[in-house]
């Protein structure tokens, strides 16, 4: 196996009394598509939010692309990361949120060009060309001049995916990307994510409740429980013959809610 | 000398110390005018709000116009109007009362809006529920609507009392001896405006800080358990 | 007709009132943004300065501020060896602007703080700097929220300009007082003046309404 692109070493995250990540060890290989499943409150989303530097960690070390994320090497030890270091590290990642979080005051096109222009320093033409290609990819070329409020939830989420991709990240983080959508709009978003999953270069980390989808696109499924990975493995293994009692109970509850 | 109190101009500190009691006399007038103006505003505002709520347009529209007119014209002009025009019609009031009346008139436009917003913020469902329980219109208002409106109205009114305090110096133009006027007179007579005017500023800061604190305390004491406030 | 003779001098006063309102509202808006953002700053010095400015000017009376700048500031200047005597127009604009700016600062702060946290997270995920996030993401969204209270403050400011007549500036209130001294025709004059202020307030409110729609264009787009 290659050098992992993401590595958590004994990472602890607490919210007050509550321990959300409990000495978590976790690795993702370059190009790997990993889906995190588990009951709510198990720390799934926190993993993504820690990677995107939206949440600080209380202990442990996170490595991204060979470098510590929240720390910088300093005279042989690690010291807390500076803002400059955090910005360099964020460059490697893109994130898609449950509630899309598009900028409501910008058109779709400007949502896609703003960061490439002012963060990456692209020329207006370059940024625009990149945005148009991505809108084509997510099937929304005709919506470039629309405002987010004029789009359906599914369309907004596709724009949000394009916006994250416009920064050319190595790693894409999807935080329950379809949970806020009406059922009939889930498919269009999943189709876009699936086409991305066919890119071998892109590392993908996905938190979702769409078990069928997870089974089809993932190289590996991680079952989170109480801030740790209780069980992980290829989708067939986890879904067909889970070893742990908690995994079985969870999958049963999710796949057969009426029983 | 003012109010029978002499000042001592030997040093700045002595001067400040000697005029403090005079300024405090002015502050008493400031507080009196604020309170009187506030009560006029509460009453007049309630009247305007009630008239605006009358289903008859011939009453509601003029009331709405008057409220808007009072809100959009300066206190100073309203004060001059009352001060110079009322005597033409045989109504001669002491300057202090005219001043307090002007404050009340100006702020009635604001308090009317507070009453209206307070009542309107009570969800419609509450009135419907009261009707469903067969409560009379009057009982529904007293027992259901009012207790829920009061907790919204009282803090807003408190904030307007603080605003009224800050507008009292306008009354100095009709010779009311409130704090600023007192300081100005001292300045005119001693050619030292810096100390009295700075002291008035500081005293004002103190006054509004205490008043704002009082409003906050009052707000926390209001019985509002279970009432959803935005 | 007596009252027609008052129109000309009163309209001259109106023009001064309009000028004072425009200048001091612009100054006030600048101060409001500066102090409002300053209060949210992470720099303790900038934050303390902004908070002090806001508290002092909201906590004291406008007329006290006006008189202090007009009567006391020149004396303070003498003490420290500076010429701090300004033209009454400058003093008026300064006092009005400082006063309305302090109230506006709280509006700016409130509106910026009301921008959802998730917008800041999205900006962070796209690697915008703090400054870029503020100027490109937060402020444009906060601006439409600020407009209705700004409209009220502008009308308040128009009304407050009447006070500068007390430092003998020739605004509408001052002209009215002059005419009254001359003619003793208080009822007619003050009725006219009240309606003139009312008219100006309506126009100002309408203009602020237009501005509000302009900065909030993106909010009116619906599917």
State the shape of chain C: flat
Can you give the helix content of chain A as a percent range? 25-40%
Shape of chain A: globular
Share of helix of chain C, binned: over 70%
How many H/I helices of chain C?
Answer: 9
The low-pLDDT segments of chain C are: none
Classify the fold: give the CATH topology of chain C: MetI-like fold
Mean pLDDT of chain C: 91
Largest sheet of chain C: none
Quickly count the domains of chain C.
1
Poorly predicted tracts of residues of chain A: none
CATH class categorisation of chain C: Mainly Alpha
What would the average pLDDT of chain A be, to the nearest integer? 91
Q: Provide the CATH architecture of chain C.
A: Orthogonal Bundle
The tally of beta strands of chain C, per DSSP, is 0
Structural class of chain A: alpha/beta
For the record, give the distance between the C-alpha atoms at the N and C termini of chain C, rounded to a whole number.
58 Å
Run of helices and strands of chain A? EEEHEEEEHEHHHEHEHEEHH
Characterize the structure shown.
Chain A has 259 residues and is α/β, with parallel strands linked by helices. Chain A has helices spanning 44-51, 83-90, 108-118, 124-137, 153-165, 186-197, 211-217, 235-240, 245-255, and strands spanning 6-15, 18-28, 33-37, 59-64, 67-68, 71-74, 77-80, 93-96, 171-175, 203-207, 220-225, 228-233. In chain A, the strands form 3 sheets. Chain A has a 6-stranded mixed beta sheet with strand order 8-9-10-3-11-12, with helices on both faces. In chain A, a hairpin with a 2-residue loop joins strand 1 (6-15) and strand 2. In chain A, helix 4 (124-137) packs across helix 5. The model of chain A has no long low-confidence stretch (mean pLDDT 91). With 230 residues, chain B is an all-alpha fold. Chain B has a single domain, classed as MetI-like (MetI-like fold, Orthogonal Bundle), CATH 1.10.3720. Chain B contains 8 helices and no strands. In chain B, helix 1 crosses helix 8, helix 3 packs across helix 4 (95-120) and helix 4 crosses helix 6 (137-167). Chain C is 83% helix and 0% strand. Chain C is built from 9 helices and no strands. The longest helix of chain C has 37 residues, at 4-40. The radius of gyration of chain C is 21 Å and the shape is flat. Chain A binds chain C through residues 52-54, 87, 90-91, 93-95, 97, 99, 101-106, 114-115, 118-119, 146-147, 149-152, 163-164, 167, and chain C through 118-119, 121-122, 124-129, 132, 136-137, 140-141, 218-219, 221-223.
């Amino acid at each position: 196996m290659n050098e992992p692109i993401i590595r958590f070493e004994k990472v602890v995250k607490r919210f007050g009394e509550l321990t959300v990540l409990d000495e978590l060890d976790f690795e993702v290989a370059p190009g790997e598509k990993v889906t995190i499943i588990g009951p709510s409150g198990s720390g799934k989303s926190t993993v993504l939010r820690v990677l995107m530097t939206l949440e600080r960690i209380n202990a442990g070390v996170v490595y991204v692309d060979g470098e510590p994320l929240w720390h910088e090497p300093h005279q042989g030890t690690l010291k807390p990361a500076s803002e400059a270091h955090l910005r360099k590290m964020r460059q490697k990642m893109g994130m898609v949120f449950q509630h899309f979080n598009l900028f409501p005051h910008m058109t779709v096109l400007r949502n896609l060009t703003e960061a490439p222009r002012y963060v990456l320093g692209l020329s207006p033409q370059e940024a625009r060309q990149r945005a148009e290609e991505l809108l084509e990819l997510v099937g929304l070329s005709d919506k470039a001049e629309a405002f987010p409020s004029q789009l359906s939830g599914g369309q907004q989420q596709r724009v949000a995916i394009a916006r994250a991709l416009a920064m050319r990240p190595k790693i894409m983080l999807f935080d329950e990307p379809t949970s806020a959508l009406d059922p009939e709009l889930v498919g269009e978003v999943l189709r876009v994510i699936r086409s991305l999953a066919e890119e071998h270069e892109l590392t993908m980390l996905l938190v979702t409740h769409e078990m069928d989808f997870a089974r089809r696109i993932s190289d590996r499924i991680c079952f989170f429980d109480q801030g740790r990975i209780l069980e992980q493995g290829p989708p067939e293994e986890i879904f067909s013959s889970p070893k742990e009692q908690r995994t079985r109970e969870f999958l049963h509850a999710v796949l057969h809610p009426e029983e | 000398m003012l109010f029978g109190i002499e000042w001592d101009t030997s040093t700045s500190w002595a001067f400040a110390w000697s005029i403090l009691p005079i300024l405090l006399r002015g502050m008493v007038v400031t507080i009196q005018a604020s309170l009187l103006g506030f009560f006029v505003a509460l009453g007049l505002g309630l009247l305007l709000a009630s008239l605006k709520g009358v289903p008859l347009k011939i009453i509601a529209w003029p009331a709405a116009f008057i409220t808007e007119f009072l809100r959009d014209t300066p206190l100073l002009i309203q004060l001059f109007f009352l001060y110079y025009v009322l005597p033409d019609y045989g109504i001669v009031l002491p300057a202090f009362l005219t001043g307090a009346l002007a404050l009340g008139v100006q702020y009635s436009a604001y308090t009317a809006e507070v009453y209206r917003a307070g009542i309107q913020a009570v969800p419609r469902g509450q009135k419907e529920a009261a009707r469903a329980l067969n409560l009379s219109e009057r009982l529904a208002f007293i027992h259901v609507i009012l207790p829920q409106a009061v907790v919204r109205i009282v803090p807003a009114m408190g904030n307007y009392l603080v605003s009224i305090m800050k507008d009292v110096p306008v009354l100095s133009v009709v010779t009311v001896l409130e704090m600023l006027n007192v300081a100005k007179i001292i300045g005119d007579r001693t050619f030292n405006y810096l100390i009295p005017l700075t002291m008035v500023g500081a005293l004002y800061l103190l006054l509004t800080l205490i008043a704002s604190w009082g409003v906050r305390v009052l707000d926390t004491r209001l019985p509002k358990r279970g009432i959803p406030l935005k | 007709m007596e009252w027609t003779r008052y129109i000309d001098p009163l309209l001259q006063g109106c023009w001064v009132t309009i000028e004072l309102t425009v200048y001091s509202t612009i100054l006030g808006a600048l101060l409001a943004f500066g102090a409002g953002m300053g209060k949210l700053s992470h720099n303790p010095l900038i934050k303390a300065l902004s908070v002090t400015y806001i508290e002092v000017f909201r906590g004291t009376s406008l007329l006290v501020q006006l008189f202090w700048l007009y009567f006391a500031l020149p004396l303070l200047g003498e003490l420290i060896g500076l010429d701090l005597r300004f033209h009454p127009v400058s003093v008026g604009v300064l006092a009005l602007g400082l006063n309305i700016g302090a109230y506006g600062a709280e509006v700016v702060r409130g509106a910026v703080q009301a921008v959802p946290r998730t917008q800041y997270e999205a900006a962070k995920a796209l690697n915008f700097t703090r400054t870029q996030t503020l100027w490109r993401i937060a402020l444009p969204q906060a601006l439409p929220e600020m407009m209705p209270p700004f409209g009220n403050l502008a009308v308040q400011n128009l009304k407050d300009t009447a006070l500068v007549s007390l430092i003998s500036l020739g605004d509408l209130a001052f002209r009215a007082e002059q005419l009254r001294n001359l003619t003793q025709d208080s009822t007619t004059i003050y009725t006219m003046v009240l309606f003139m202020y009312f008219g100006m307030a309506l126009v100002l409110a309408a203009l602020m309404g237009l501005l509000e729609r302009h900065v909030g264009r993106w909010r009116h787009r619906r599917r």
